[in-house]
Amino acid sequence: MAQALYRKWRPQTFDDVVGQEHIVRTLRHALQTGRLHHAYLLAGPRGTGKTTTARLIAKAVNCLAPQAERPCDRCEICRAITEGRLMDLIEIDAASNTGVDNIRELLEKVGFRPTQARYKVYVIDEVHMLSTAAFNALLKTLEEPPEHVIFVLATTEVHKIPETILSRCQRFEFRRIPLTALAGQLQKIADAEGIAVEPEALDLIARAATGSMRDAISLFDQMAAGGEVTADYVRLMLGAERREVVQALLQAWLDGDLHRGLQVINEAVDSGADPRQLARQTADFFRGLLLMRIGAGDTWSDPTAEERPRLQAMAQQAQPERLVRAVQLFSEVASERRSGWQPQLPLELAFVEATLKPETMPPVSEPPVSTMPTATVAPPQPTPKPPASPPTAQESTRPAVPRPAPTTPTRPAAPSAASSQAAKPPPRAASASSTAGATTAVVRAAKERWKEVLAQIRPVNLGAFLRDAQPVGVDGDGFLVLGFQHALHRGNVDKESNRQIVETFLSQMLGQRILVRCVMEKEWQPGAASVAVAPARAAIAEPAPVPPPPEEPPDAFEDELIRRAREELGAEVRIS
């Protein structure tokens, strides 16, 4: 069986380490000056060389070559470590040995002298997986180890390690390996292995590895199994798309061409592209445009010399705020792990949302203006009542509030009852059919979506009160009438603060200005829903005035229990 390339090409000397020059320089100087530490902590992303460096430390401190050449990878000790047969190098996987008993068993053997080498080196990989009790057992030995023992701890999540452990180690932070270094190492491996490869293919593999040398070599090994490594073959295996496709998507975004952008996405997905990979590539290009836009384009090494002028021109056409928003949207799609029934849907939504400018979207606080006729289109304005018209029974059920101006021409002010009767014009006859149609549509839409209102309106207790109501029509002033079965529920919803919440919610849901009026359903007359005749009926009918409800005692609100009962339960204070 052939050996995997990432194992075959594991660095065996400090000269072979790629992308971690700052750590290699420090370790070499410590070896040359004899300033060895008893505990090292190697932290960083996966595949960046932590375990490899731990083995190189074990080689360097035990190598038989002159000090300046350590590790030489030629002496008996170095070869034994390379072949995995040195008994004085103990490697422990903390992910599968997390308990305190495992650490105690290890520490029992710490006191024994090494059999072959100068130092016994303990490498604990994924050390953050140890339990709290295991860390406590390790702490004392780590603080005062025998002179012949060196601990090397490796982790990808350094924040999970106790501070007491961190303070007793020399800490080295491993960085993600640069793109050029990854591509260069892959080219070196390809030349040595005799694998035909295109430079663009190596670039694609290096980008997919995201700074991990092990991932890059493993991907290259997989691609090499299919013969010649070409860019098209790598794209097919990775689900990536050509740079021209991504740039076409960016151009559609700049032009605000939703049709073209969605067409590019669907053509790419139909040809085998992975939506998440395409989102990752697009986010990377948006990031590059952002860097160019703010004057940091030199740090973006991705574009070729031929592409850079065009991308620079594209960057100048976009505002930094839009670029930041696009990077965020496409990055979220790229990091999404779930795959729905329509894989490209998140990518399409991200493109549409990134393309639509914020100023073209309706503000959250104001409902969008509807193109259909509305029951009320004018803002609420105070309308004086004719002196000869006493309040009706329905108007007395709600405190007097400013009424909006009607959608048709306003009623003229009547100087006297006689002149009003003589000069009264036909009651909105010209617009009766259109207005009636509009109000019917409003009531029908409210009834159809009433379950949504009950489920989504907040606070929850307001939705509970509304379950007692249903839209029953539109009154003569254009208000949407809510009919209630119980006076307690009507009274709570009819409070000014609650009524405004209901009106705002309905306005946003139905896409037009909605004002509501709360009545008892048994008192509501369906005929009052006709705005064409309601004003005339109100002017002719003169029912007896309804006496106002008894006034509440002035100290009713001072008692805390009464106040909470009124606010939370809708209670009323009555004088017997």
Topology:
Blueprint (H helix, E strand, L loop, with lengths): L4 H4 L12 H13 L5 E5 L6 H13 L13 H7 L6 E5 L6 H9 L11 E6 L6 H12 L5 E7 L7 H4 L3 E4 L5 H15 L5 H11 L3 H12 L6 H8 L4 H13 L2 H13 L4 H19 L14 H9 L3 H16 L9 H11 L61 H7 L8 H17 L1 H7 L3 H7 L2 E6 L5 E5 L2 H7 L2 H15 L5 E5 L13 H7 L19 H10 L7
Parallel strand pairs: 1-4, 1-5, 2-3, 3-4, 7-8
Antiparallel strand pairs: 6-7
What's this, in brief?
This protein has 576 residues and is of the alpha/beta class.
Which keywords apply here?
about 575 residues; Zinc Finger, Delta Prime, domain 3; 4 domains; five-stranded parallel sheet; alpha/beta; Helicase, Ruva Protein, domain 3; elongated; Rossmann fold
Q: CATH superfamily membership of the largest domain, which one?
A: P-loop containing nucleotide triphosphate hydrolases
- Could you estimate the helical fraction of the residues in percent? 40-55%
Structural class of the secondary structure composition?
Answer: alpha/beta
Q: What is the CATH topology of the largest domain?
A: Rossmann fold
Major sheet strand order: 2-3-4-1-5
Number of E-state strands: 8
- In CATH's first tier, which class of the largest domain applies? Alpha Beta
Q: What is the annotated CATH architecture of the largest domain? A: 3-Layer(aba) Sandwich
Mean pLDDT: 80
Distance between the termini: 98 Å
Strand portion, in percent? Answer: 5-15%
Low-confidence stretches: 360-433, 528-547
**Roughly how many Å is the radius of gyration?**
39 Å
The number of helical elements comes to: 25
**Main sheet attributes: strand count, strand direction, barrel closure:** 5 strands, parallel
Number of domains: 4
What form results from the Cα inertia axes?
elongated
